[in-house]
Amino acid sequence: MALTKNERRLRIKNRIRKVVSGTEARPRLAVYRSNKEIYAQIVDDVTGNTISSASSRDKDISAAKATKTEVAKLVGKAIAEKAMKAGIETIAFDRGGYLYHGRVKSLAEGAREAGLKF
């Protein structure tokens, strides 16, 4: 029987997570994309703590009338600014099983523009 889209994505996500792991020196930037929103969080997998997070549901971002791709770029910039305040400059990017294309790529580019290195 064929896999559903979500089952396929979860298999890819697990394959990625075997390799990509966040440490205190280089935490992981995890991305979750729903049909309407996009979420990003910086995670230290050693301690299991979320250092910071941003999403398209934040008040300043949701107020912007823009396309979903443009909103994803704003989320990337917001998470990068929060990371810089927390003293994080380099991260490991976890695309969460999604293709590096469209909104996920836009979020990554926004984070890079704001100063994160990955």
From TrEMBL:
Biological process, per Gene Ontology: translation
An example molecular function term from Gene Ontology annotations: 5S rRNA binding
Record keywords, A-Z: Ribonucleoprotein, Ribosomal protein, RNA-binding, rRNA-binding
Annotated Gene Ontology cellular component terms: cytosolic large ribosomal subunit
Record Pfam families: Ribosomal_L18p
Keyword Ribonucleoprotein annotated: yes
Record has rRNA-binding as a keyword: yes
Xref: InterPro entries: Ribosomal_L18, Ribosomal_uL18_bac-type, Ribosomal_uL18_bac/plant/anim
Subunit structure: Part of the 50S ribosomal subunit; part of the 5S rRNA/L5/L18/L25 subcomplex. Contacts the 5S and 23S rRNAs.
Cited function: This is one of the proteins that bind and probably mediate the attachment of the 5S RNA into the large ribosomal subunit, where it forms part of the central protuberance.
Similarity field: Belongs to the universal ribosomal protein uL18 family.
Name under which the protein is recorded: Large ribosomal subunit protein uL18
Organism: Algibacter pectinivorans
